[in-house]
Amino acid sequence: MRWILFLMIAAIALSIGAIYFVQVFNLEDTHPTYSYNEKLFNEDSVAAIDITIADEDWSDILANPLDEEYKEASITINGEKISNVAIRTKGNSSLTSVASSDSNRYSLKVDFNYYNSTQSYYGLTKLNLNNNMSDSTQMKEFVSYELMEQMGIATPAHSYMKVTVNGENYGLMLGVEAIDETFIAQNYNTAKGYLYKPDGTGSDLVYISDSLEDYTGIEVQMNEDSTDDSELISMIKTINQGEGYEEYLNMVQMLRYFAMNTALVSLDSYQGQMKHNYYLYEDEDGVFSILPWDYNMSFGGFGMGMGAPMSFNANTSDGSENESSSKQFPDSNAPQISSSPPIEEEMQQDNGQSVEEDQMPMPQRSGQGDGLMMMGSGELLSDDAINFSIYEPVSGASLTDRPLLNVLLSDETLLEQYETYLEQIAKDILTEENVTSITTKLGELLKPYIEEDPSKFSTTEEFLEGVSGDNSLPEFAKQRSESILAQLSGKLVVESPQTSSMMPGMGGDQADQQNANGELSQNGNPPQINEGMRGNFDINSMTDEEFEQFLERIQGGNFPITLPDNFDSMTTQEKKSYLTEQMGNIDLRGSRGEDGGRDRPMMNNEASDSEASTGEFTKMDVYQLLVYLALALVAIFFIRRIGK
Q1: What 8-state DSSP symbol labels residue 364?
Q2: Which H/E stretch holds residue 510?
Q3: How many Cα atoms within 13 Å fall on the side-chain side of residue 494?
């Protein structure tokens, strides 16, 4: 009888162990540990990428870049040759811009398994070689990904690479890992779920219908053969309805992403008019995360569309102007981002069709290549970039036009978490010291490669200017982080940006945004911020014109003030006295209560900032289980012996 009991227990134990073993074997088959990060993406050195391709094929690529046709080639990476790979040009408006110039500096895509489905470079199947167009510093994308990683956001592997084609120097490029099944396996420890790339109709995630076919701009890029779009449609529905979205969103991850993206003023993204350059990953539980992509026009480089007027408390306790404020924020003489339309990548109309290239107003920029059309050439330290709103963090659209972001910032508890992340970013990540540590290292590493780069879009001097100094990325970080903290404290109030049509034929009522001369309907320089003051306007010292503008903003709903019925019959001084009293009772950050929403239970994925479990078994789990099973069997054996 004892032997039967022993065998039953042993059989149960072995069965459990077998189940775990199967799980481990699946783990090994579906997402093995790849080593391409160590082999290729070394941030301390510049990789050598040597492409060998038939002359006629390379000539065809250069002659017909817009075809984006793959050609067979071989590639040697740091001395290791891989044959039978595919190479083509890549890009959207950046591609057409280079094609219309006399430059041949195209971004390239390398596909290792295009001709051989089993081939990869230590697990890497696709490599992007970005030409750093629209970025005179040549560092914005790299630095952005570094800061994203520091914020705990999964980002594609990236490092600089010197590229040669048939022995000729093609230029210094930024190598970036593709976001695909390999990326998901590396960062989420699974091959399950679906990956979506939104770009075009439906990429704003505004609800259209229950059919994914109507969202023509949302492309499935992982497990396409077994796609179940029901969770995606449900997610889109709930974020537009404003309820039930909690079960579909990875709250912590999305809040981190939007906080970092807002801090970086990266508007060639979901938060800009083009609503693209992001991925959505749906895990096997139907929970969505947002993934970052394409940051060469971060740091305010995409342009701001209509400027957002700002309001500050202009008086100090002694009635004098605060001299330090002009040092902390760009003053009225700081370079302004033009209100002229920026160049948009992948121009899409509401019907999903591309705008013809000859319809696009393409600003010229001096530099390599006559007629080269450069995008995102706004001033690095413009007022609009530095003081970009953290509470209305969109450009060329209203917050309600971006339901995913809107639903997160409309929830009091989530908004507080978003504010916490912004404070963390401003104090610990997007700091002058932190960014300087990155750019200084890059300056030393990249300078000799940039000096010898025959096709670079900007000069070595412009690159070095971005490393350090008064117009550098670290200076942007300093001023931007100060602005974020001022907005969080209420010392700096940025009005809701006007929604504008940034390109002709793109929809929107430009007449509402501009006057007959094409100027913004609101003008004038914002008063300087007063350090140490919040919530109090010196209304009595306003000029008549300033006071009228202030009244218009109140009547437009910018402040939670209700005007009495007899307000119009009051004298100007009575109006000022009344409004001074009312302004002293509100928080300039908005109408949120100090404790609004704090009693609500935490949402899914919101309880902790620590790294969430992937839900998959790891090798260590199995090893521990086997040890427990072995100990159990030994214990049973000795118990049986003692029983005898």
Answers
A1: B
A2: helix 510-513
A3: 25
Distance CA 486, CA 604 (A): 31
The span from the CA of 468 to the CA of 451, in Å, is 18
Residue 143's CB is within 10 A of a number of other CB atoms, namely 25
For residue 337, give Cα distances in angstroms to 23, 386, 395: 55, 11, 13
- Facing residues of 175 across strands? 129, 159
Q: Is 611 helix (H, G, I), strand (E, B) or coil?
A: coil
pLDDT tens per residue, range 172-223: 999 999 999 999 999 999 999 999 999 999 999 999 999 999 999 999 999 9
Question: 72 has which bridge partners?
Answer: 86
What's the CA gap between 292 and 591, in Å, rounded?
Answer: 31
104: which 2 tokens? 């041949």
Question: Residue 393 corresponds to which tokens in the numbers above?
Answer: 């963090």
Alpha carbon 109 to chain centroid distance? 21
Kindly give, in sequence order, each residue whose CB lies less than 8 Å from that of residue 167, ignoring residues fewer than 6 positions away: 50
pLDDT band at 21 (very low <50, low <70, confident <90, very high): low
Token duo for residue 134 = 């629209």
pLDDT tens readout for residues 4-17 = 566 567 667 666 76
Compute CA distances 505 → 447, 502, 509, 566, 609, whole Å: 42, 9, 10, 45, 43
Of 343, 387, 438, which Cα lies nearest the Cα of 141?
A: 438
Question: Residue 161 in contact with residue 174, Cβ under 8 Å?
Answer: yes
Query: Which amino acid, 217?
Result: G
Rounded distance between C-alpha atoms, residue 12 and residue 17, angstroms: 9
Say how far apart CA 139 and CA 157 lie, in whole Å. Answer: 15
* Stretch (H or E) spanning 140: helix 140-150
Specify the long-range contacts of residues 214-222, CB closer than 8 Å, at least 24 apart: 216/352, 217/276, 217/348, 217/352, 220/194, 220/195, 220/196, 221/180, 221/195, 221/196, 221/197, 221/279, 222/180, 222/181, 222/184, 222/193, 222/194, 222/195
Pairing label, strands 47-53, 158-165: parallel
Residue type at 124 in one-letter notation? L
Do residues 472 and 439 make contact, with C-beta atoms less than 8 angstroms apart?
A: yes
Residue 34 neighbours by CB distance under 10 Å: 17
Report the distance separating Cα 490 and Cα 419, nearest Å: 12
Comparing 23-27, 226-230, 450-454, 608-612, the range with the smallest average pLDDT is 608-612
Q: Which helix (H) or strand (E) holds 74?
A: strand 71-77
Tokens of 289: 């995360």
pLDDT of residue 596 exceeding 50 = no
pLDDT digit string, tens, across residues 497-544: 554 433 333 333 333 333 333 333 333 333 333 333 333 356 776 777
The token pair at 203 is: 């990429």
Tokens 């000022």 belong to residue: 576
pTM above 0.90, yes or no: no
Of 4-8, 443-447, 449-453, give the lowest mean pLDDT range: 4-8
The strand order across the sheet containing 288-292 reads 218-220, 194-198, 278-282, 288-292
Each residue of 600-631: pLDDT tens digit? 333 333 333 333 333 444 455 566 666 777 77
Q: Judge whether 415 and 409 are in contact, CB under 8 Å.
A: yes
Distance of CA 190 to the CA centre of its chain: 23
Of the pLDDT bands very low, low, confident and very high (cuts 50, 70, 90), residue 140 is: very high
- Tokens read off for 275: 């609503």
Torsion sign over Cα 321, 327, 333, 337: negative
The answer to whether 273 and 396 are in contact (CB under 8 A) is yes
Cα–Cα dist 606/526, whole Å? 38
